[in-house]
Write a structure and sequence with these properties.
The chain is α+β, with helices and mostly antiparallel strands. It folds into 2 domains: 103 residues, Ubiquitin-like (UB roll) (Roll), CATH 3.10.20.30; 117 residues, Alpha-helical ferredoxin (Fumarate Reductase Iron-sulfur Protein, Chain B, domain 2), CATH 1.10.1060. It has 9 helices and 7 strands. Strands 2-1-5-3-4 form a 5-stranded mixed sheet. The chain has a two-stranded antiparallel sheet with strand order 6-7. Helix 3 packs antiparallel against helix 7, helix 6 runs antiparallel to helix 7 and helix 6 packs across helix 9. The longest helix is centred in the last third of the chain and has 20 residues. It comes from Actinomyces oris.
């Protein structure tokens, strides 16, 4: 197939970005989307032009580093990471035809400043985790696996929340650029387990304060975040976050 790529180019965080178009031919449907970008960069390098900067690592749908917005959708038209998107998935769209233009942009958020082209700085998510995503344990050998009973229902929900890979698609899809699905997932997977109880209320307050300080927007329950999450983290993690926050605020008020 022949396609046109309309790609966001930006030198750094302080420069003004713009779109550039590139015509490509001989693209096969079995090629992954990142392989198409690799092929484009080979052509640009051969022409003595600056290659397009984009992030990737495992290319197996595990790390979440490869996220970009494709035709207005975070990670593209399928619910997966960008590296698992193939050209056949785009070709399945009835509006897609030979010579179609594919628009590629970076994540858009105050919390994700553009470093170069399609690469954004997602260290804000790391700082949210650092603010409270831990538990207090005594150092030493690991305890027996069965020494702390965990209800099956809570264990399953904790694993479901822990599946979050921090790709940032939830932020890119949210009209408010909120990272509440990510923050809710990190709060939920610890708050559901016995080991996470000592810091439970302090955790939600600290992590939400950091979330807001990073410039992410508030949640208005639109649900776009859960719809694009490649690991199917459910919207319920935000409900748990809100319940813990309400409890923390009530406990704080009650103390006074």
């Amino acid at each position: 197939m022949n396609i046109k790529l309309k790609i966001w180019r930006q030198k750094n965080q302080d420069s003004k970005g713009h779109f550039e178009e590139y015509a490509m031919s001989g693209i096969e449907e079995h090629m992954s989307f990142l392989e198409v970008l690799d092929l484009l960069n080979e052509q640009l390098f051969a022409e003595g032009k600056e290659p397009v900067a984009f992030d990737s690592d495992c290319r197996e749908g595990i790390c979440g580093q490869c996220g970009v917005v494709i035709n207005g959708q975070a990670h593209g038209p399928i619910r997966s990471t960008t590296c698992q998107l193939h050209m056949r998935h785009l070709a399945e769209d009835p509006s897609f035809k030979d010579g179609s233009t594919i628009t590629i942009e970076p994540w858009r958020s105050t919390g994700f400043p553009v470093l170069r082209d399609l690469i954004v700085d997602r260290s804000a998510l790391d700082r949210i985790v650092q603010a409270g995503g831990y538990i207090s344990v005594n150092t030493g050998g690991a305890p027996e696996a069965h020494s702390v009973p965990v209800q099956k229902e809570k264990a399953d929900a904790a694993f479901e929340a822990a599946a979050c890979i921090g790709c940032g698609a939830c932020v890119a899809a949210c009209p408010n650029a909120s990272a509440m699905l990510f923050t809710g997932a990190k709060i939920s997977h610890l708050g559901l387990l016995p080991q996470g109880q000592p810091e439970r209320l302090a955790r939600v307050v600290s992590m939400l304060n950091q979330h807001d300080a990073e410039g992410f927007g508030g949640c208005t329950n639109i649900g776009e975040c859960a719809a694009v999450c490649p690991k199917s983290v459910p919207l319920e993690v935000i409900s748990r976050l809100n319940r813990d926050l309400g409890h923390a605020l009530w406990k704080g008020q009650h103390a006074h």
